[in-house]
Amino acid sequence: MSVYALVDCDHFYVSCQRLFDPALEKRPVVVLSNNDGCVISRSPEAKKLGIPMGAPYFKYRRLCEQNKVVVFSSNYELYGDLSQRVMTSLRQFCPDIEVYSIDEAFLRLDGFSHLDLTDYCTKIAGKIKMWTGIPVSIGIGPSKTLAKAATHLAKKNYQEKVFDLRNPSVQDSVLAQIDVNDVWGIGHRLTQKLTRLGITTAQQLRDSPTNQIRQKFGVMVERTLLELNGIACFSLETDQPKKTIISSRSFGHPVNQLTELEEAISHFAAIACAKLRKQQSKTHSIYVFLQTNLFSLRETPYSNGIMHGFAEPCAHTDAVIQAAKKILKQIFIPGLGYKKAGVMLMNIIPAARRQHDLFIDPCSQDKKNHLMQVIDTINDRMGRDSIFMAAEGVHRSWRMQANLKTASFTTHWHDILTIDI
DNA sequence: TCTGGGGTCCTAGGACCC
DNA sequence: TCTGGGGTCCTAGGACCC
C-alpha cells in the first residue's frame, strides 16, 4: 500500500515576511499579488478579520487600515529562495519528493512503514522550522487526495502540525466533516453540480457509485472518488519539464503606445525563453496576447491573441522576440489603453530532440546557442537583467506597482538585513 | 483609480484518412 | 425506405490547482 505525505507551508508568503520582522508574529498580516491587486496570503489573524483569499485589495483597504493589518507587496525573489531552502531540507528526510507548488511538496513514504510516521513527520516539521524558520503542516494518507485532506485537518488543529489519515475508521469519522468543495480536485462548478445530486461532503462523494460519477463528471472526478477510498490514482511526479511556459504581467497604468507594448512583450519573451533554456527545452510555437481592463464598465473590453508556429523548434530569445513583435502588430488596435499582455510558449520539446531545417545553416545555430548560454550564465551569476536585449527597453514605464515591497534579504548582497545592537 | 501569475488535464467536435 | 465504421490529429474551451 502506498503512503503519501503532503507538506504544506503555513500561510507561506506571510511566514516569509515574518521571518525578517519577528514583530509581525501574532499580528494580522497580508501579502498582495503582483501590481498590489489581490490578497493572496493571510495570517490567521487576518483571516479572522474576514479578509477572503483572492479578494481585490481596494475593497478591503479600509478594513485593513482600521484593524492595523500589515500589508506587503509580493516579493517572489524572496519567496522563491525560501521555498528552495524548504524543499532542499525536505529531501534529507525523503528522496521521493514532488515539489507541487511554491509552498507544497508530496513525499512518498512507502519504505518508511517501520517508523511511527506521525513521529517522523512531527520531527520533519520541527527541523524545517528550525532550519528555515518556516512553519509547516503535514498530512499523511494512502493517496494524494487523502494526504491533502489530512493537511486540511492538520491546519484546522493548531496544536498538532501532523495528521495521519491512513486508518479507515479515522477516515470515516472525519470525511463526513469535510465539505465536498474542500476536496482536492473539486472546484466551485463541480461543487454546484454535486450538491444538486445531494453530495455535499467528502464522505458522500467517496461512497457514491463509481460508474455513475464517471458517467456524469468524467474520469478526473472518478479518480478523486477512488482516491478518497484509499486507492492511489495520482502518482508522484518528479522533475517534469514544463509543457507550457507563460510570462505575463498587468501593467502599472494603461499602456497605449505600440512601442511601449513592444518593449514589454519583448521582455516577457526574454523571460520565457530563459526559463525554456533552463529546463533544456525548445518551443514549437508562441502565443502573444493583449488585454484592456476587462473589469471596466465604461469601455468595451478587448482581448485578443494569436499563435505562431516556428519552422524549427527554437530557444533563441531574438527569434522569439521577432515573432512576438510581428504578432503584436496584428492584434494591436490603436487608441485603446492596455492593462495586461503576455507571451506563452507552447508545444515544448526537449532540446536534445532536434530535427534540422534543410535550409538553415547548422553552424549559425551553434553560434547563437553559445550566445544564449553566455547571456544565461551572466544573468545567473550577476542577477536577472544584468544583460538583456535592447528590444526590451530600459525605462519599462509599464512596470507594475509594488509600493509595499520589502527587500530581497537572501538574494541581494545590498539587501542583507542589518541589526542594530 | 483599484480585480495576479503561473500551471495541469480532459473533452467535444471538426478535419481528414482508409 | 435505406446514407459505414473505424481511426488519428488538432483545437478551443472548460475545469481544476496553488
Overall description:
By secondary structure, the chain is an alpha+beta fold. Helices cover 39% and strands 20% of the residues. It is built from 14 helices and 12 strands. The strands form 3 sheets. Strands 5-6-1-7-8 form a 5-stranded mixed beta sheet. A 4-stranded antiparallel beta sheet has the order 9-12-10-11. α4 (76-91) packs across α5 (117-132), α10 runs antiparallel to α11 (219-228) and α12 (258-278) runs antiparallel to α13. The mean pLDDT is 93. It binds a DNA duplex (18 and 18 nucleotides) through residues 32-38, 40, 54-59, 61, 74, 76, 100-104, 184-187, 189-190, 218-220, 242-250, 293-295, 340, 342, 400-401.
Would you spell out the secondary-structure blueprint of this structure?
Elements: E1 4-9, H1 12-19, E2 29-32, E3 39-42, H2 44-48, H3 57-66, E4 70-73, H4 76-91, E5 97-101, E6 104-108, H5 117-132, E7 136-141, H6 144-156, E8 162-164, H7 168-175, H8 188-196, H9 202-206, H10 210-217, H11 219-228, E9 245-255, H12 258-278, E10 281-292, E11 303-314, H13 317-331, E12 338-350, H14 362-382
Parallel strand pairs: 2-4, 7-8
Antiparallel strand pairs: 1-6, 1-7, 2-3, 5-6, 9-12, 10-11, 10-12
The chain binds a DNA duplex (18 and 18 nucleotides) through residues 32-38, 40, 54-59, 61, 74, 76, 100-104, 184-187, 189-190, 218-220, 242-250, 293-295, 340, 342, 400-401.
